[in-house]
């Protein structure tokens, strides 16, 4: 068996040196840093809108009902809503149908909703149609046990507000 000659050993060392040089250049390239400037213009985010919430079942003193609401998004991107609450700015956050005007609205309450801490993503506008999402909030509306008899069989609407 022949021992490798000087020529073969020299070629092997040159190959090792090239591999080390290539590795060093690759390492320097990936570890390098840079700087610069970039600008972007984001469109103004428009407010989402909520249709008045509606109870989904008849309420009775001491009872509760789910509330359904539809949220509309006029933006070109998804918008996340973190929670839905009774609108604190509404002059009358609850309204009752006209045939039950004797129903005292102070017997009603709404439990703030956040979809178990996850919130909701409202789809974006597509063409000329705003994105929308229908939400059903279980056990969100409650009627006090002290509610008047005039509230029996009433239909209620709620003024709600979404927090982003």
Topology at a glance:
Layout: H1 6-31, E1 49-50, E2 53-55, E3 64-73, E4 79-81, E5 83-86, E6 94-96, E7 108-110, E8 120-122, E9 131-143, E10 156-158, E11 160-163
Antiparallel strand pairs: 1-3, 2-3, 2-10, 3-9, 4-8, 5-11, 6-10, 7-9
Question: Helix segment count?
Answer: 1
* Relative helix content: 10-25%
What shape does the CA trace take?
rod-shaped
Largest sheet, strands/sense/barrel: 7 strands, antiparallel
Structural class: alpha+beta
Could you say how many structural domains there are in total?
A: 1
Number of strands: 11
- State mean pLDDT (0 to 100 scale): 88
Strand fraction equals 25-35%
What is the gyration radius calculated from CA atoms?
Answer: 32 Å
The end-to-end distance, rounded to whole angstroms, is 79 Å
Sequence stretches where pLDDT stays below 50 over 5 or more residues: none
The SSE order reads HEEEEEEEEEEE
Defining key terms:
two-stranded antiparallel sheet, rod-shaped, 164 residues, alpha+beta, 7-stranded antiparallel β-sheet
What does this structure look like?
This protein has one helix at 6-31, and strands spanning 49-50, 53-55, 64-73, 79-81, 83-86, 94-96, 108-110, 120-122, 131-143, 156-158, 160-163. It is of the alpha+beta class and 164 residues long. The protein has one domain (49-163). The strands form three sheets. Strands 1, 2, 3, 6, 7, 9 and 10 form a seven-stranded antiparallel beta sheet that branches. The N and C termini lie far apart (79 Å).
